[in-house]
Automatic annotation (TrEMBL):
It comes from Lottia gigantea. It is found in: Cell membrane. PANTHER family: ORGANIC ANION TRANSPORTER, SOLUTE CARRIER ORGANIC ANION TRANSPORTER FAMILY MEMBER 5A1. It is a multi-pass membrane protein. This is Solute carrier organic anion transporter family member. Its main location: membrane. GO terms for biological process: monoatomic ion transport; sodium-independent organic anion transport. The keyword Transmembrane helix applies. NCBIfam families: oat. Belongs to the organo anion transporter (TC 2.A.60) family. Residues 21-620 form the Major facilitator superfamily (MFS) profile domain. Residues 428-500 form the Kazal-like domain.
Amino acid sequence: CGIGRWRPKCIQKCACIQVFVACMSMLLIVSGALSTGYLNSVITTIEKRFEIGSTVSGIVIASYETGSLLSVIFVSYLGGRRHIPKWIGYGVVTMGFGTLLFALPHVIAPKYTIDNQKEHNFTDVNICQRTPTTKKGLFPGELCINENSGNWIYVLILVAAQVLLGVGGTPILTLGTTYIDNHVRKDQAPQYLAVVYATGALGPVIGYALGALMLQYYVDTFTHYVPITSSHPRWIGAWWGGFIICGLLILMLAIPFMAFPKVLVNEKRKLLEHKAKEDLLTVSDSAEENVQYGKTIRDIPRSILRLLKNPIYIITTLGICCEIAIVSGFVVFLPKYIETQFGTSTSVANLFTGGIGIPGAVVGILIGGYISKRFQLRPKGAIQLTLALNLLALFGFTFFFFLGCENLKIAGATLPYFNSSGHKIFDPNLTSTCNENCDCSNTVLEPICGINGITYFSPCHAGCTTSFGFIGCACIMGQNLNLGHEVIMAPLATSGPCKTSCENLLPFLIMLVVMTFCVAGAQMPLLMVTLRSVKQEERAFSLGMQFVILRLFAYVPTPIMFGNIIDTACLLWKQKCERNGACLLYDRVAFRYKYVGMAAVLKAVGLIFFLTVWVILYKK
């Protein structure tokens, strides 16, 4: 145990599987905090900062899996017979630099300002006025300079950072899981792996909490002051800060992995002594062991073909694809869903996701591992446990269809400005007779609540001629008043959207805990089915091939697919330079049905795959 010639005696006791598991757990906590927690918590802020839609942000998230695909086959096949801890260490260093690269767009991008009006009270600008502008619906200083062509550069940097994270993270679970499984007894493997995966599941909790903390600070908090709070729709938090913190921590965690030996001699000795007492198993393992496996890359095609012909392995992997598709799509956009559906701030949505939803996953992984060890579940028993948990989860998704909120009454977006006869289909349009000459900007969301109980996109869209008490708001005063009406000098609105009576947030969060428990509880049993369905020398490569399949059919496409589905529920886009930027307003009902419906379909398909595996095992 040591690095190079530096091998002090005082650290030789650390060359044991318990310390390796502890290091793996810490690494998974930090990497999970970054990729699953923090990035998901700030992705909505990144969308607003660089004016991109959910489809583009889904591509950024999926780029992590592209990096994994570039390396996972070679890492899992060749690394399984080489110095596994060092390979993990090299990957961790790559992850560290990729994480720091995430903060580069903040450094090179122009300073973010609130429509270049940060030195003024922007409400005074966003009122009904007839001052000339260069283009209809644009504030002075909001012009299309080079049509904002530099945003694609920032997106490419984020994609490159994700690719580095994917390449660096490949050895962690593929080789790390094999390293643990090779140094412990079969009956102890679920326990050790459950500890690793469960502590790794704590990472998103920390990541979401860190995201909630960083988003409380303004994006340029060290250089600029703005007169708004973090609850304002136009607030942009310090999304970049967490990447620097996580990047430095990841680089530090590379050191212990560089110091671990290729083989833990004491652990191997204990394992061989235990195997010597099991004569039949010893003969079987030694007969199946292929010492030439993993020596050269020329045998990779033959090894891939052997795995593809293994029905239990391949069908189980396809079922896991559906599970991962839900995690990588549903969970990634869960903070945005909570924020949009229940009207919470971004920070509060992150706290709910990380502090309430993720702990259910931690408990699920631990209990799933405990049940597997306690009852010594063989593949048949493990798949039966998976089927039971999947049935509960599918039943829970039906409740999600009803645990939501109705759309806010927003003039011009979800209902007409004034009541009209008939039942014609309503098309969103923020312009009406009461504000058509106000020259309002459709890119500046500053909601106000009228005394009529209707929310307006901004004081300008409500026809307000002054921001002090929102006096003289033509759209609120009634449809029978013409443009030449007498101004009523009384407050007609209050700042912020109108309050709703929706009380489904608490039941939704309770059901979310149950759902995450069911999904995570099947993780350890499915891992055991995978490892026990292949030969011992194939375990590392089987996990690597499984990761390839998961990335091709789950991790890569589903964030893009969910992002595209979410974009179809957008009512109003932030238009700039004749292109769509970030979504300003979603149809809550359509968002809920499409978002939850996609996850429910994936869960049902996964259930069919696992049922097929059970039938195959039952016939054996």
